Amino acid sequence: MTGRPVIGEQVLCRRVPEGAFERYSARPVRTLEDYQKMAAIRAAVFMSEQDCPYEEEFDGNDLCATHFLVFDGTQAVGTLRMRWFAGFAKLERVVLLRSQRGRPALQVMLAEAFELAARKGYTRMIAQIQARLWPVWSRTFKCRMVPGRPRFWFSDYEYIEIEIVVPHHPQALSADEDPMVMIRPEGLWDRPGVLDASAGRSGQGDVAA
Length: 209
Prior knowledge:
alpha+beta; Aminopeptidase; eight-stranded mixed sheet
């Protein structure tokens, strides 16, 4: 993604402070190194601070999800996870290192993540949040408790389900997109990628998907 995440920022309750996008940056996890940073942050917070067992924190969904990292300069300081379903996306595992809580890192990461979801064509997201954190999340991004849904427990915490409405993105991707756009790295659809550079080579010979 390029530029300020205009659509993603509209989901937040407050505009990201001036200068925050210069200090902080967020991007999808695309490399093994970034994946390891994500896992280290989650282990430091969920396993160490909240005493969550390893097999409950790393629950079998990580290799089929999109992860985000937020950086303070070059240091990864937070992460979140998104999973994709027909008609909605699910926001999960939102976490910051203790030193970053209360700072704009969270807003930057969420704005970029919501922007990605909007570009992928999603207008509805759900999240399962610790019930005790409803006052925090309801002041962070525009959401509502899903009516009629029961509270439930897992990993020693009470949870509620919330719904997040994401504005339609004017550049939402579709099945009719330029094929070269669709094969670019996740979130970098507006930049020519390595496969764009390969297009100039001869088209002769066998073709494989």
